[in-house]
């Protein structure tokens, strides 16, 4: 059986390893991709750092859940794509049959608790097999450049789309954390709403990026953040708050900044908590935790990117340098989103 190289998690709290594994073959309705780009995500460190027994996954599995590639082989019944087509892969692997999938909420598929790169083999390999319905043609976009759109771009887009009806002209949207997802959220807010965008981060360089992307006001996180934010928001507060950090501090800040009839999206997986109680949350304020985005969301994100209005900042790494890319990500030594190129 023909082999390929994959970058796999093979032991809990152990570094991932390059190993030789069989090349997966596409079944009915499936497509084999030659991998183009794989974006690294902070949630990967949850898998890399968790002790045995914490996550409901069996080892080993190949890392990588932000995936793009070229169609390399079509399984029986797979249609709508041609060999060589560049495609993006939906971030959440879904069954297509459960009640959530049937209503278009495939990002909440009953089987979505595991998927490509988290419990199942992901894209940090030479080839990947994906159901054809989970692929989105990239058109003129270079698949080696746009892998982060499949998660960072689509997850933030899903959150912004849900809150957008509350963001009337003259309202304020607050974005906490201008990392990979937060930077995209600023762009979606600029493109989809007329809200004033306020951004908060611990890094001045990220706040400069937020201003470049469309934020009207920025705040450097400090001991006076709450007071400074009160001054900026005034009595109207923020109709939409997007927390891309998710620690105790930021969740409390998000709830405290929200407006009556507003919404708070807690997107960051920082493990934070805050009290939800009478007078602790504004009246009729929605508080929700989104999981990824839908296949339809990814179609929208790709369509927007094809118009040239979306800024996609990446730093590329050769496949053999995946460990270095993860280490630089962990240490905060990346200028932008890391993308590993399995085929150079």
Features:
alpha/beta; Quinone Oxidoreductase, Chain A, domain 1; Rossmann fold; six-stranded parallel beta sheet; 9 helices
Describe this structure in words.
The chain is α/β, with parallel strands linked by helices. 25% of the residues lie in helices and 27% in strands. The protein has two domains: 3-151 and 293-341, Quinone Oxidoreductase, Chain A, domain 1 (Alpha-Beta Complex), CATH 3.90.180; 156-288, Rossmann fold. It has helices at residues 44-49, 99-102, 152-163, 180-192, 204-213, 225-233, 248-257, 295-306, 322-331, and strands at residues 3-9, 17-22, 30-39, 61-62, 66-74, 86-89, 115-116, 119-120, 127-131, 135-137, 172-176, 196-201, 217-220, 238-243, 258-266, 286-288, 314-318, 337-341. β12 (196-201), α5 (204-213) and β13 (217-220) form a beta-alpha-beta unit. α3 crosses α4 and α4 packs parallel to α5. It is globular.
